[in-house]
């Protein structure tokens, strides 16, 4: 690919393939082999189901999707003004966001390298940056240090932690503690790096201070910004080393280094469900039976039967050559089937986790106007866990802040509350971080608790053993029934996982058809 | 502002004011005091000149701008298909970018906290993210280590540097080298931080390895990405500690921590000159005389006279109560005036620096398709210095990459070449980083050398002493002539500097009018 440069060892650093190479089924596979396209029932029109139907459809498979909800996408769900949702607690929320405002209740960001990007390109879904990191966003952790129980910018926290870590390592290096690890040249290179990385000795020309973190640089952020004339900017002094270390203020820095979370990230313009609707369009909406609740699955000598009730409660049985079941495993485990007890055990193995979000629509973008936060994420050990500021619509007349995005017990605690109480709790805690402004100018709100959401009953699942027999049981076809979904991938909770799993099921099914 | 929370010490971290508080002149200042608005000649319709005219205009000052170029904005210059430019070497380039494609030849990014953002809001200039940091962008440094002379992702470099730095500090801490600096609790907190920050001991449960950087985690990036089924992803092994340290691969990490450069950054939708044209509209285009080259400036007992030639070469003299001179100081120093030799000396003091960019328009967005780089910056010690990938238009049919953005001697070297040779040289060097793809599918190109650009003759200036007498001379009015521009601020090379300096001149001039 890179010609002579590769031979010279000058080829660029490897870029991960988005997934194991995938070749979609092709109509010519049938015409050239004299075989004919088969019928497939896909259970679930979430991202895995839609991808399965889309890829099978490319070769002419006659596909029908059965979907419990009234819309495509599953957990890929964007809520907008006019939508209503009744949760498993029996509460109905009506979304009142202004035109153009939305909240991605499920996935909200796409890494550059995910196969999700390929589908956006193939289907023409416009993308824009998702702001996953912002130096002006905040950290708020409770504790007993001088930097606890208050909002600190990511910017200041980084300056202080990197400053003191660099100072400590420079001192240890100078003291000879690493002479066994590093050559004299390496020690010099390391110190040079640390002085720059940690901004050491920044405000003095004093040699004795060259390896000290003195704070006071603009990296912490200014109280008065540099500007005209003699205004060189003023900076608050850094807290003491002991407070910075003991506070754990750097506990989530590594989030930014993650394969799936490092900038840059993207989002579809207008809402994540643009992907679901683009897939629906590509599949053909007529092939999707919405409001269909699956009540039974049976593999047969000639194919498979699926019982379901339609939106009116009328029972039906559908038959096809194959079934691809993308229903979340903990829900699929409850549906009667004839695939044997090992399948039920396997479906019960992964455990669903709770997660939730609240969208707070404000009539004033105070986070931009007052705080200079244009997108990004605030982290806290309060039960909100994360606050997301919108990545688009800057300087608009309103905006939706994700007031919490939490997991585990925090999410269960909010799930147990009616919406109004969730909102009150979110505002009380958010005000600890942002001040009273957090409770003002809220025009509407909507909260989702995925554990209390019908057809999901959880955000995503976790496996105790993702190489174990239960996992492998679901990777193999059971008679004429295949399984797919992000739970059958190493990208759980990501659309990438759903899509690559769908591709794996499509490949296995098609290979079987082509070799049988 | 935050009520009781402030009293409890719970107010959010300070957010820098964008600049010293500024109150625009107001028409009522005149009506209430019986004074009348004065006339002002503003020299230069760059960002400082436009801002000066805009703010004075709010109170009714009768302002005329004299601008040498045929457009507003000065160095805020967006080149698009159809534009032509003749440089001081005498070469004329005609821009052939496709519709919708552009390059910001001058400023390309705006920090969240700059006053530039306030003008965008006030003037209704739509903004979108500028991608200033991307884990998938590259580092390429020459040298003699195992990681030199090849492209390394920011992602992998960070994983390796942070991994080894953490390992070294953890070892030194464990060895007791920091017992004099840290309490036992702090040492434990520090080690906990380092294990997470450096991803230490990641692939084993072995206690002996708990403080070792073992590489192999997804933070480095995958050769085969995690996906369906049993595909948990494969990672290339990390280079050795000595190579990572000696390579200096982390030499530019601190860029991301800078006050002005830390994410998140923004850009106007469609080009930086949307700001210049919005200001032009707000000022009133009829008040700007384009093609006017200033040839003389005189303060007089009753105001000031300015000689200039118009686009046809016809000489004129304009008179006003005041002049605000925003012409770059090294150019203003050459214009005859009667302000005394100290002013000439002061204008000569700041030295202009060279900088340049080339825009390479490709008919295929290979950096996205092949390399999964959606915006961001590649750094190199090759003479390109930086490569910028476009922050918008993702998945489009074409795109403009900034093939180099360099300074100093590198910029002078390119400035000395005709455009075709600049392009060849940029492609040869870019191919070292990106492979042969860098030279394919280029449909057009345009390069700017600011040192060879008329009315600029440099990118921005540097002062030897920004608190010294020369600087202060230009901060004070000289008779009825004021000076403004980014060179008179602590935000040189930023529009923020030009705008805050303009505001300072406006404030001083208006105060004088109101108290005289």
TrEMBL record, chains A, B:
Coiled coil spans: none
Annotated keywords: Signal
Keyword Signal belongs to the record: yes
Amine oxidase domain segment(s): 47-509
SUPFAM superfamilies: FAD-linked reductases, C-terminal domain, FAD/NAD(P)-binding domain
UniProt xrefs under Gene3D superfamilies: 1.20.1440.240, 3.90.660.10, FAD/NAD(P)-binding domain
Span of the signal peptide: 1-21
Protein name per the record: Flavin monoamine oxidase family protein
Organism: Kineococcus halophytocola
């Amino acid at each position: 690919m890179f010609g002579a440069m590769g031979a010279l060892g000058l080829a660029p650093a490897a870029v991960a393939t988005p997934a194991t190479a995938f070749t979609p089924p092709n109509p010519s596979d049938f015409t050239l082999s004299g075989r004919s396209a088969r019928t497939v029932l896909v259970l679930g029109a979430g991202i895995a189901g839609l991808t399965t139907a889309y890829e099978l459809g490319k070769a002419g498979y006659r596909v029908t999707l059965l979907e419990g909800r009234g819309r495509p996408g599953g957990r890929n769900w964007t809520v907008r003004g006019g939508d209503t949702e009744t949760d498993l607690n029996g509460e109905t929320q009506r979304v009142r966001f202004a035109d153009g405002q939305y909240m991605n209740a499920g996935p909200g960001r796409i890494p550059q390298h995910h196969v999700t990007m390929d589908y956006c390109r193939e289907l023409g879904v416009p993308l824009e940056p998702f702001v996953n990191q912002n130096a002006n966003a905040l950290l708020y952790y409770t504790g007993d240090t001088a930097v606890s129980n208050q909002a600190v910018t990511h910017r200041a926290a980084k300056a202080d932690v990197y400053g003191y870590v660099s100072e400590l390592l420079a001192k240890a290096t100078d003291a000879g503690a690493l002479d066994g690890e590093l050559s004299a040249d390496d020690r010099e290179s390391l110190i040079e790096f640390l002085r720059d990385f940690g901004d050491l000795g920044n405000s003095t020309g004093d040699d004795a201070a060259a390896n000290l973190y003195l704070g006071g640089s603009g990296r912490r952020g200014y109280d008065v910004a540099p500007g005209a004339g003699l205004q060189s900017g003023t900076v608050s002094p850094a807290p003491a080393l002991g407070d910075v270390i003991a506070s754990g203020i750097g506990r989530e820095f590594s989030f930014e280094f993650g394969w799936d979370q490092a900038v840059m990230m993207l989002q579809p313009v207008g809402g994540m469900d643009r992907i679901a609707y683009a897939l629906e369009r590509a599949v053909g909406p007529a092939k999707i039976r919405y409001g269909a609740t699956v009540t039974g699955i049976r593999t047969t000598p000639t194919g498979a039967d699926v019982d379901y009730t339609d939106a009116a409660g009328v029972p039906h049985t559908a038959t096809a050559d194959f079934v691809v079941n993308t229903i979340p495993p903990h829900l699929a485990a409850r549906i009667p089937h004839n695939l044997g007890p090992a399948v039920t055990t396997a479906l019960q193995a992964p455990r669903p986790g709770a997660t939730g979000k609240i969208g707070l629509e404000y009539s004033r973008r105070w986070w931009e106007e007052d705080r200079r936060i244009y997108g990004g994420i605030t982290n806290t050990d309060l039960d909100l866990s994360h606050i997301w500021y919108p990545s688009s619509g800057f300087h608009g007349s309103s905006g939706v802040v994700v007031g919490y995005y939490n997991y585990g017990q925090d999410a269960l605690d909010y799930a147990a509350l009616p919406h109004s109480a969730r909102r009150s709790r979110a505002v009380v805690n958010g005000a600890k971080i942002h001040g009273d402004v957090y409770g003002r100018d809220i025009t509407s709100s909507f909260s989702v608790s995925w554990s209390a959401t019908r057809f999901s009953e959880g955000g995503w699942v976790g496996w105790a053993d993702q190489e174990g027999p239960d996992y492998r049981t679901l990777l193999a076809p059971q008679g004429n029934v295949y399984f797919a979904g992000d739970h059958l991938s190493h990208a759980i909770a990501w659309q990438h996982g759903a899509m690559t799993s769908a591709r794996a099921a499509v490949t296995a099914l098609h290979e079987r058809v082509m070799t049988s």
